[in-house]
């Protein structure tokens, strides 16, 4: 991706002199819930799972969307670990 943005940079042969921060594989699952919420679940090769809930709305509908998200999270609270959330790189 970096090379596509800087095709003339000679440092691409040296990985743009960037160090590897982390290496892992992720399988991503995308699920439509309640006909409007997108749930994205990532499962890594070191058995860590992380997910996000998305609801795409117009800017004028943000307050209603936040209320809808809160209601969704309350209804499905059994599914989410809200006590100790951890992203993939932190894990």
TrEMBL record:
InterPro entries: CYTH-like_dom_sf. This is Uncharacterized protein. It comes from Lepraria finkii.
């Amino acid at each position: 991706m970096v090379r596509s943005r800087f095709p003339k940079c000679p440092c691409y042969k040296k990985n743009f002199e960037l160090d590897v921060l982390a290496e892992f594989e992720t399988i991503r699952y995308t699920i439509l819930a309640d006909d409007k919420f997108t749930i994205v679940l990532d499962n890594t090769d070191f058995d860590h799972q992380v997910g996000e809930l998305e609801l795409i709305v117009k800017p004028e509908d943000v307050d209603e969307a936040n209320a809808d998200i809160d209601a969704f999270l309350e209804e499905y609270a059994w599914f989410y670990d809200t006590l100790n959330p951890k992203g993939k790189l932190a894990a």
